[in-house]
User: Fold this.
Amino acid sequence: MSSPQSLLIRRARMILPDGEWLEGDVLTRDRQIVAVAPEISPPTPVTTIDAEGLTLLPGVIDPQVHFREPGLEHKEDLFTASCACAKGGVTSFLEMPNTRPLTTTQQALDDKLQRAANKCVVNYGFFIGATSENLPDLLLAQPTPGIKIFMGSMHGQLLIDQEATLEPIFGHGDRLIAVHAEDQGRINQRRQEFAGIHDPAIHSQIQDNQAALLATKLALKLSQKYHRRLHILHMSTAEEADLLRQEKPDWVTAEVTPQHLLLNTSAYETIGTLAQMNPPLRSPHDNEVLWQALRDGVINFIATDHAPHTLAEKAQEYPNTPSGMPGVETSLALMLTAAMAGRCTVAQVANWMSTAVAKGYGIPHKGAIAPGYDADLVLVDLNTYRPVQREELLTKCRWSPFEGCNLTGWAVTTIVGGQIVYDKGQVNTQVRGEALTFV
Assistant:
């Protein structure tokens, strides 16, 4: 492991916590930012990065990923995924429990934390998954950002789709609950209705907007009943956004993925099953309503739901194809490209992808460029456009639904705990991130 040292970033254009821009320097030491100023006299010894012409942002915190280890490492593993994170400007991630074995006990959580300590070049945290029988584990497991509940779409022992089974989880403890909100009963019914259709576009009709709305309504009802901290994962529909706009308590947050903002059902025509995910892609109208909800603060932040499968698995005939797509390498560039096109501002992107995530999950000392904050940073180039190319991807699955898209805002240098983990195309595989804490 590389030892932390002083790092001086010079002449960067950076976003400050108050939303103002500064052209200047940042000095880090012992994993933390120690000074931010228009000009800083370099101490010795120091590693210096000349960032003239580049933009400095807080490192991305991706709050929903599926990195497949243990048990499904042929799709992805913690090392390959964390290298992909570094390349994409992601300095911390929160990973989901649907691995093999499932992360439903303290022992399974400890195993993941140990694996990550040995392998991850960025910071990490792991959700604990709810089953119908593990309430004691949900109350006691540490450290974890929260409890993940799959209300749909079918995840074996992790599926909890009945209100009577959900209620005791909402009613005991105060740990954040994050829900995959799709109504499994409606999905099962529609799956029978559309049986025998092999066009992957039918996926968006089987798992329709109503299936998402029904589950979100139920989660919101239970959250309000128990005043329980609730986070709605990968919101995908206009109806859910409108519901939250009307009745969203202060303790409820929601996220959206770049794919639900930027892709819609027309993607099935061009990339087929590579566009298949849960919840599915929606209509252009849903795209626009989600964008507006994000800009208005109804939706709080961005996650990728990075869920890789091999191209061979994706090449099967629907419905035998698995749902999910990779995303950690492209998410920041996608959102910054949208900002440069006028859909939002760069400051909003920094908030949605870092600051608001740290606040929402109670991750201390993350998400801002200020003294006392952790030196998790990314330098991006907003002046150059470059296409997404399969051969350049570091994710083990080696594909992207955005292949060929011309993007700006690619990470030039990614810094984790004051250490350069990615620089101009190369990952320093000796760097190790740290386990995140949650308050």
